[in-house]
Specification:
alpha/beta; Arc Repressor Mutant, subunit A; Rossmann fold; 4 domains; five-stranded mixed sheet; 19 helices; 15 strands
């Protein structure tokens, strides 16, 4: 992993008027050259009268004198004129087409070698390197990206790496549901600040730390109405304010106008305004159904809440999530899982004395909330993981605060093969076996069902430590290692810091301030960036694996 921002990397300066600076630049240049009316300033760059007046009023409210008006003519004089020339960089060249330079394509080709194979069930139709460059070039020509926070929702096309390597943006966040894609992004070595990587399934929701963070969101959602709606809901939640923008790629075949209308309608239902659209701007490898090209839309928030309902389970055009859209989910596996959980609860009650039963918990509730759902006394959770893209199972086991659970999973052909190949440890069962084997044991349930695998998960490292047990009580027994497993909703920096303050040895015990510094330094040494509001399960699985392997500073 190479996620941590190098200490020597300077933070790029913020554009003087944010993303709108590029559109305002012609008007600013004109006013530094000669007096002009508001009408002339509007004509110079095509910015509205309200936008020009906001610019002038901002200068007038500043501390630097030099803005004068005579009748309807405005003039810019020193010292404000010199300050504006410097702040706006008017004496510096403004090279166009930086993302179209051959070096960008070479970088994209190199980074792409680390990507996993495209996944049909996630609608992976990669944009060509030329398509990525064209998309970023159009955005760059329309918006001033200097110092902007850019969130890339769906990181497989590597827009996030190209933006970070360009060096002008303030910060880049790469979000994806595929942990293998996030690992490939994290493996790239950049001389500039690397993107912040976060796992995000739009059906679960946006990581809390990135809510209201982004000046620009770049996304290429599944080309279905449900997919567009879910991705736009998450993108809208990430926007920092009314001047923020969303750049969306979407295309449909010339004979599929009805589908195109249905998907485009979701943009309006999200209460987003269409600022611009470039037809056929992005090219793709494959994607014959849309002619191998998609249009690029630039959307703006309207200040309304939008019609954001709970995201549909079936967002994609292919694979299990799409196939389930045609029929109601089969309830038999869940019914049998409840029976298995009831059996476990009765068996446990014989030793604990606490009568319990099965308690169904949805994946969205378990992974999307700010804390783990409360369990009834003696309850055995039942979690339906059918349609798991790979990241659900590990994160469910990191978040559950129970001694046992019953999991309803998609049929795993690996278990049914007479000569199975080794599992990939990037996500799913393979990751759990590689990194959680000291905490959880997964075994097939005694009861069988068609169309799903039932797994019984049991904690084998003792009961998970509840947050209340981590109070500043040095007399209490401190866990041997920070209790990360079972506290998936907590910020790992806080969990480690709390653990460091609880040593019974007064000479080795750290103060809260010292513990926070030591915890932050330790995470940085592992190449893991943790932001306020982050939880353990927001991190990519490769980062979580590194932390589980080395959870203690020093």
């Amino acid at each position: 992993m190479h996620e941590t921002t190098p200490a020597t990397t300077p933070v790029p300066p913020q554009a003087p008027a944010g993303l709108a600076s590029r559109a305002l630049r012609p008007a600013v240049e004109l006013l530094t050259q000669r007096p002009a009316t508001v009408g002339e300033l509007v004509s110079a760059g095509g910015v509205s009268r309200r936008g020009i007046e906001a610019l002038l009023n901002g200068w007038r409210a500043g501390d630097t004198p030099g803005l004068d008006v005579d009748a309807e003519t405005w003039s810019l004089n020193d010292p404000l004129r010199s300050e504006v020339i410097g702040t706006w960089g008017l004496e510096q060249p403004q090279p166009a087409g930086r993302f179209l330079e051959p070096e960008v394509r070479t970088r994209l080709e190199g980074w792409a070698r680390s990507l996993p194979r495209p996944r049909r069930e996630l609608d992976h139709r990669p944009a060509t390197h030329d398509g990525v460059a064209a998309r970023l070039d159009l955005i760059d020509r329309q918006l001033d990206l200097r110092g902007a926070n850019v969130l890339v929702l769906g990181a497989r096309d590597l827009d996030a790496l190209a933006l970070a390597a360009d060096g002008r943006v303030g910060a880049v966040a790469a979000l994806d549901v595929d942990d293998a894609v996030l690992a490939a992004v994290g493996a790239a070595r950049l001389s500039t600040a690397s993107p912040t990587r976060r796992w995000c399934d739009v059906r679960v929701g946006l990581p809390t730390s990135l809510t209201g963070w982004a000046d620009l969101v770049v996304t290429d959602p599944p080309y279905t109405p449900a997919g567009m709606a879910a991705f736009l809901a998450v993108a809208s939640a990430a926007l920092a304010g009314p001047q923020s923008k969303i750049a969306v790629s979407y295309g449909f075949g010339e004979t599929r106008a009805t589908l195109g209308w249905q998907v485009q309608r979701e943009m309006l239902r999200a209460d987003l305004a269409l600022c611009a659209m470039w037809p056929g701007a992005v090219t793709y490898d494959g994607a014959e159904a849309i002619g191998g090209r998609a249009d690029l839309y630039l959307l703006a928030p309207t200040g309304r809440d939008g019609n954001h309902t709970e995201a549909a389970h079936n967002l994609y055009t292919q694979g299990p999530a799409a196939a389930r859209s045609a029929t109601e989910p089969d309830e038999q596996p869940a019914d049998i899982a409840n029976k298995v959980a009831n059996d476990l609860a009765r068996a446990d009650s014989a030793t604990t004395g606490a009568a319990g039963s099965a308690q169904a918990i949805g994946v969205r509730r378990l992974l999307g909330g700010e804390q783990a759902p409360k369990l009834q006394v003696g309850a055995v959770p039942v979690v339906d993981l059918r349609g798991d893209p790979g990241g659900w199972l590990p994160r469910v086991l990191l978040a559950l605060q129970s001694q046992a659970a019953v999991l309803v999973c998609d049929v795993d052909s690996h278990d049914r093969s007479p000569d199975p190949a080794p599992r990939s440890d990037v996500d799913g069962r393979g990751w759990v076996e590689a990194h959680l084997r000291a905490h959880w044991r997964l075994t097939p349930a005694d009861r069988a069902t068609d169309g799903a695998d039932l797994l019984v998960a049991r904690r084998i490292d003792g009961a998970p430590t509840p947050p209340a047990a981590l109070a500043d009580d040095a007399s209490a027994d401190r866990p041997q290692l920070p209790p990360l497993v079972g506290r998936g909703h907590a910020n790992p920096r806080n969990v480690i810091a709390e653990w460091l303050t609880r040593t019974p040895d007064p000479e080795a015990r750290l103060t809260r301030r010292q513990a926070r510094v030591a915890s932050s330094d330790h995470l940085a040494s592992l190449g893991i960036e943790v932001r306020p509001g982050d939880s353990l399960i927001d991190l990519p699985l490769d980062a979580i694996a590194a932390l589980l392997a080395d959870p203690v500073p020093g």
